[in-house]
Each structure stands twice: as C-alpha cells, then as structure tokens.
Amino acid sequence: MKRRDLLAGAAGLIGGAVLAGAPNAAAGQQRVPSSTPPVLPPPIPDDPTKLQGAPTSQVGTRSTFVTPTRTPYGEVTGSSLTPLQDLTGTITPADLHFERHHAGVPRIDPAKHTLMIHGLVKRPLVFSVADVQRFPQVTRTYFVECSGNGRAAYRDPKPDMTPQKVAGLTGNSEWTGVPLRVLLAEAGVEASASWFLAEGGDACVMTRSIPLEKAMDDALVVWAQNGEPLRPEQGFPLRLLLPGWEGNTNVKWLRRLELGTRPWATRWETSKYTDPLPDGTARQYSFEMDAKSIITSPAFPRTIVKGWWPVTGLAWSGRGAIRRVEVSTDNGRSWADAELHGTPLAKAHVRFTHQWKWDGTESVLLSRATDDTGYVQPTRAALIKVRGLGTDFHFNQIVGWRVAADGHLFFHGES
Fold first, then answer.
1. pTM listed for this prediction
2. Who's near 127: CB < 8 A, 6+ residues apart?
3. Which class for 319: exposed (0-12), middle (13-18), buried (19 or more C-beta within 10 A)?
4. Which of the four pLDDT bands, split at 50, 70 and 90, describes residue 35?
5. pLDDT over threshold 50, residue 326
6. Which listed site, 35, 53, 104, 392, has its alpha carbon 20 to 30 Å from 368?
C-alpha cells in the first residue's frame, strides 16, 4: 500500500470516528444528505439514432469509453507520466502532457507576473505578460522530455512495464511564444555575455544556467500550448522553451533571466542534474536529448491474436529530425524500415508504423531510431558499457516487447 493510500484511508477512518462521536445537533430535524449523489452518465442506447443527443456544453469532455490518465498523481515533488499507449498521432493533449515538479504547481496571477532581464545587458528590463505577448509571435512544434525519462526501464526492467512507465516523461506540443533573442535584443546584450540564468517562480525557485548561443538559436518564451494558454502545471503564464534540451532547462513559471560570463553552478546543477559515470567523474550541462524511439502499440498488457498488426510508436531526437526508424520482430536479428508518418520535424516526435503479420510464434519487437546527424539509438548493453548502470539521466537504449506464444505481451528491456 502506498503512503498516500494509507493517509487517505487513515483520513477516512478519522473522519468516521469524529462523526460517530459527535453529538447529533440536528436531532429531531429533517436529515440532510451528507453529500450530493453522484451524477451518473446517461445510459448508452442500443440505437443512438432513435434518441435525442446531448446538448452543447461549455467545455468538451472525452467519451466515457476513453479514460487516459497521467500516473502517478498527487506528487508535490515528483512526476506524472503521459499515457503514450493511449495516444495516436504526435501531439500530446495538454492535460496529458507529463509533469515534473520540484516544489508543486504555483498559483500565479498573470496580471502581476513579470519577466526581468538583467545582468550583462545595456538596458535592464521588466516585462509584464501582456508586454511579452505584444512581440511578434511564432508557433512551432517541439517535444519536451525529462532527462530522467526511462530510468526505471534502464536500471531494473520488469515485464509488467507499460509504455507509460517506460518512456512517459515526454510530450510533444505546438507552442506559441516569442523568440528569446527578440527579448534580449530589446535589452541589448553586452559583448562579454556568454551564459544566462533562467529562474522560475515556483516555491523552490528553480534555476538553470544556459549557454547564450541557445538563446540566439531557437529558444522561445512561450505562453500557449496546443492553442490555449499554458496550463498551470506546464508553466502558466510564461515558460522557457529550449527545443531538444532536457526538460528541466525548459524553466516553467519563468520570471528572471540574468546574463553573465559563465554557468552559475546552482544547487540544481551540482546536487541534481549531473550524471555520474563509471570512472568516478560526472557529466555536467549535458543538455541535448539523444535520439530515441519506443513502440507504443502493441505493448503490455495487451494480448494479440494471429494476423496483421500495425507496430506503431514514436521517435524523436534533440539534435534534429528523425531520419529513419527500423523495427525488428525477431529480437534484433533482422531489421526493416518503418513508415514515418509525414515529414519528420526537427526536435519533435514523429510517429512510425510497421505492418507485421504474427504467426503465433514467440517474438520480440524492437525499434531503433537514427537522426539526421547519423546517430543511431544504442542497445542497453552498449549504453551500460559507456555510461555504467548508475548513470542517472539520458536513457535512450533500445527497448521493446516480448510476444508470448499465447499472444500476451511483456516489456523487453534487455537489448
């Protein structure tokens, strides 16, 4: 039993005890229901053409037959994962985009929120959210991935892992905002500046040091995701968006940018986001996410029958566009090119599909991505050889699914 389940159960018991011991102040009066009865969904008609449908509504909802959720939930310091196995296409619904918080989700009044730019600039500036939104805006599609995505599957792969558990700390969205270089031009960057510090407005004041070169390349300050304002858990009202770089550098609830000459070595960069290596050293400021892929269907806990199946999934790279995804159905002894859906975008998810006819024999399905730099997704054994089993970030090993003779699928993490 998890701690929160225990606490919830204890809270229920305590509440029950209090109610049982309390005097009945309403004795002799009409009994009032303690809670509003749940609203049950309307019955499903046998023939929907014979019954009037539901009226229009303020906000749309998913079908009662479709119930994807992030898991786990209730974590103030921690994460919740995107249900990759429940999604199609490449865009992640904003309400299912993964979360990673270091001190919970802050409540921020956008009318009071500001973004300060200072340090090695000619004109220190403070922008309101409305000020930022008045600059020429751009809309672009990029993935965001937590640097710890896939840690459990790398260190301790288990057969009952789902795509959500294996790689659910990634999401792909259409972001709207202003290029950071435009805001920096307003402030006037001093020639000596080479780094900047990005600071968030959450309770832990998350900070990361970023090379100025990234700001002048494709960094954005965004306020919208998939056509609507950022959701609070995604950084409302302003977020730094660094395409292709590890998720924690995409600082949410962005409130300050300070320009300087070197990284700040904040506590997040010395105690958290460093990557231990087998030789006793550690990687620091390892920003770019490596090429990666995962088959999202079929996958555990699904069962298949003999016949044709679309083996489909997602691939992405922080260094550019995905050039090729290969699928193996025989545990890596042979590979075939999967079909890429559309033209892959740089630093964005691309969906792939390989049609496979299962003949009822035990099989292992794997996927392997190659990006346009020529980098090929490695095996787990190759990654352990270079980075060790204790490495803490950037897990992009080949993974897949074992298909048992009875059609049950299980996670296969030993590539």
1. 0.89
2. 114, 115, 116, 117, 183
3. middle
4. low
5. yes
6. 392
pLDDT, tens digit, for every residue of 122-145?
999 999 999 999 999 999 999 999
Q: Evaluate if residue 31 carries a pLDDT over 70.
A: no
Show the tokens assigned to 316: 């992405």
Residues 187-207 as b/e (b if ≥16 CB within 10 A, e otherwise) read bebeeebbbbbbbbbbeebbb
Model confidence pLDDT, tens digit, residues 366-397: 999 999 999 999 999 999 999 998 888 999 99
Q: How far apart are CA 138 and CA 218, in angstroms?
A: 11
pLDDT per residue as tens digits for the range 46-97? 999 999 999 999 999 999 999 999 999 998 999 999 999 999 999 999 999 9
Q: Which two tokens stand for residue 217?
A: 């390349």
Q: Which of 153-157, 216-220, 266-270 has the lowest mean pLDDT?
A: 266-270
What are the beta bridge partners of residue 119?
A: 259
Side-chain-side CA neighbours of 318 within 13 Å: the count stands at 23
DSSP secondary structure, 251-273, as one string: -BSEEEEEEESS----HIIIIIS
What are the φ/ψ torsions at residue 142 (nearest 5 degrees)? -145, 155
Between CA 332 and CA 343, with CA 338 as vertex, the angle to 5 degrees is 140
Of 387, 383, 375, give the one whose Cα is nearest residue 399.
383
Q: What region does 139 belong to: left with phi over 0, alpha with psi -120 to 50, or beta?
A: beta
85 DSSP 8-state letter: G
CA neighbours closer than 13 Å in the CB half-sphere of residue 218: 14
Q: Which two tokens stand for residue 63?
A: 């079908």
Q: Are 168 and 277 in contact (CB under 8 A)?
A: no
Token duo for residue 39:
């609203």
Beta bridge partners of 224: 176, 229
Rg value, the chain, Cα: 25
Instruction: Say how far apart CA 218 and CA 178 lie, in whole Å.
Output: 10
Instruction: State yes or no: cis peptide before 72, omega within 30 of 0.
Output: yes
Residue labelled with tokens 């998720």: 247
